[in-house]
Amino acid sequence: MAPSSTRLPRAPPLTSVQKTRLAISLLKSSPPPPPDQILSICRAAALTPETHIDRVALSLAASKLSSAPDTLRELATTVLTPNHAPHAIVLFGQAGHLPDAISTFQSSPSTRSLNALILACIISGNHTEAARIFQTFPDAHGVKTDTVTFNTIIKSFAESGTTRSFYSVLDEMCKKGLKPNTTTFTNALAGFYKEERFDDVEKVIELMKKHGCGETLPVYNVRVQSLCKLGRSGEARALVHKMVKKGTKPSWLTYNHLIHGFCKEGDFEEADQLYKEMGMKKLSGDMKFYSMFIYYLCCGGKFDTALKLYHEIAAKNWVPNFSTMKMLVNGLAGGSRIDEAKGIIEKMKEKFPDKTEGWKEVEAALPQ
Predict the structure, then answer these.
(1) Which among 82, 172, 239, 333 is placed 20 to 30 Å from 317, CA to CA?
(2) How does DSSP classify residue 80?
């Protein structure tokens, strides 16, 4: 009888998502890969802006290539197809290369490319250029504007401290027969809150009603976040009470904004109470939410609560970044909880082999 084969079965090929995750991991490696290797990583993963995870990888690649414009151009022209011109425009904006973004638009002018170009200006912080493009490019290139075009330029106004231009743009929008939507008004609201023009906030809310856009959850969330950014988290919480009375239920994102706000103001008791409310409502945040909360708890010396949250998310295979976990470990060690601190370090070494040396340094610095 022939001897049985000892050959190991061939591993199945990676799925597209697995390839993208591997690409993201390689792009995040330290030290960062050289430009030509970044291009090879993107090609090997066959990245396309059709999926969210691929867009994350492309965005990361563009950021890494900000100082290598030739390679970035090659990425935009060989990895992306001409149909992906709007995404290439945004990538150039992320890398701070607006002339390339404009050139890409001019080679493929369309409404989507125009909207991407204005967004690229916002991302690169060039709001003057965003206004120039909005005012001159549609006629110059025979491109129609749509609601997204107007919403994007209003976002630029909001981020550059010129939100009062919103009113004239809204009039122009309506004259063109374009219907404003919730995003139109939330962009304006965020800007007026940032500039602390509270009378204008009330005017925008009235305009929303006039145009058939009620105070929905997304609108309340923007208002809550804006108040919290101003250090007025108490007012934000009162607004949530008012929202609930009117029949709108808060989401986990509402609580994210409130907890972030109270943490920044040092009111950890209120933040903890809000987190308990989330639990009672069976609401759960994403990894960024828990990472943010654990970070602020460590900053405030609330290591017991931070450890409890860490154990909650560890069950989901979520872990905050190295610096936050280092704060937690050092905080536990400072409270004579050396064994717990070392236990976390061992788990971190297992989960992130590339950070092993960093964790060895943290461990060596712990009290003996």
Answers:
(1) 333
(2) S
